[in-house]
User: Fold this.
Amino acid sequence: MRVIIILLLLIAGGAAAWTWLSLEWSYSDGERAGVLQKYSHRGWLCKTGEGELAQYVVPGLAPVFWEFSVRDAAISEQLNKAVGHKVQVHYTEHRGVPSSCFGDTTYFADRVLLEDDPPAAAAAVPAAAPAAVPPAAGGSLPSGPGAPH
Assistant:
């Protein structure tokens, strides 16, 4: 019985150590820029911030989509407000994280910079009604091969 308890403690300690190491040490880090297409909070038990960045490599071609996760509440709030805007995201990549409770992707955003100004609130301008076409002289309808009869 004592051996089983020690074995279970070693397994639990090893899993905790692996989780801590995979979250603290990053495999890589970098910057990505593009238009923030969507940002949401997902998960059944563990809610995580998940975003999608559209990177336009060449104007006129389809964008490349990059998905990332967010663990910081302040960054999450910034991204909620930046949907639809061009942003620059600094990220760290963490491979081997043992659970999706920390994020659905291996990329974790830790800084965000809004690259464009938010659009000013457009005043509601009513659409102009199309100009009425005056009838032909004398009020008669047009005649000819394409005219209605």
